[in-house]
Amino acid sequence: MKRSYYIVALILLTFFVISFITNIIGPLSPAFISDFKLSDFMAGVLPFAFFIAYGVMSIPSSMLVQKYNEKTIMVTAFVVAFLGSLLLAAQPNYLTAILSLFLIGCGMAMLQVVINPLLRTAGGEENYAFTSVLAQLIFGGASFLSPLVYSYMVLNLGSKNHSGIFSVLSPLVPAGMPWISLYWLFVVICLLMAVLMLVSRFPKVELAEDEKAGAWETHVMLFKRPVVILYFIALFCYVGTEQGVSYWMSEFLKRYHHVDPEVTGAKAVAWFWGLMTAGGVLGLFLLKLMDSRRLLVVFTIFALIFLSLGLFGSAEVSLYSFSIVGFFMSVMYPIIFSLALSSVDEHHGSFAGILVTGIIGGAVVQILIGGLGNLIGLRAGMCFLYLTFGYMLAIGFWAKPLITNKTIFDKKE
Q: Which of 46, 121, 243, 394 has its CA 20 to 30 A from that of 93?
């Protein structure tokens, strides 16, 4: 099959855009709370609206791809995200924010289902390991960059001298809400991406057997297996924890240590994602040296230590510790996902769809932290993350994959 490096580049750009739009919600949480006068519970509804879209759209999207084609789904996804961004940019209030984030989440979920099989086809199966790692690095880089872009736009719109893009944005952005400029930026990005997808020629994707989504009966049958439920909970806990730290850390630092959320808080969130990317690179090497279950245990223990320092340390210790949690969370998603798929011997495509649906953990855990924050304070509410981290720590002890990761110390066959 002829490889298409143009399509590979387009998919890598899509990974960048997904991450850039998705992981800005955390740095924006203090702005949501102050500008819309939200309680912690109401603030928790915003990421809930975004991540519940993954639960709603993941499995249906995988079925739609097989009925239509990748290009149609990707164009539709960016149009849905465009409409969501435009809604919040044009009418900024709490209710439009909820609907906007749900629509953007639907678009991102549709894209996530399409891009991995498309990357395998366009770049070649022999290069898939390399291109998928490259995609994850780009994903992490965008998560690092988006909070810095937020700070840059807020600071420039706050100054009196507007030029270039800021002279265009200034009349569109409500006074005192400079962060809305980001959603105008998302409007332009999503529109450009939809047009780019529309004019691009896509290769025909032949899904590997383990990438195909089975019928609903297959999903129901899988859910009757305890190991499937255990790993669904694992992905639920992982995404809930990742978003629990990244969404609430800026508001925590503002509330308990009086840190400026638009600059210092946003930078701390940027470093959370940046260190997660760096940790992922290190993790690739460590997986060649040790069993993935042992690596999961070690990194989770360190993540718990730095979470504790973030919650109970001084202002400076807290500022750096939350970011460092990202470094130690870096290996958790790929290890849990691979242990899960290695623990069943059939229906990998349907199982992967179930696992991706576990992303709703990013929705539910934020509601729980917000609700607890209202009752007993945000610091105590964030202590809920000890439970989700504890579950992931336990995986390292009970996981029994059919195939373990190969290390350089394994005997050659």
A: 243
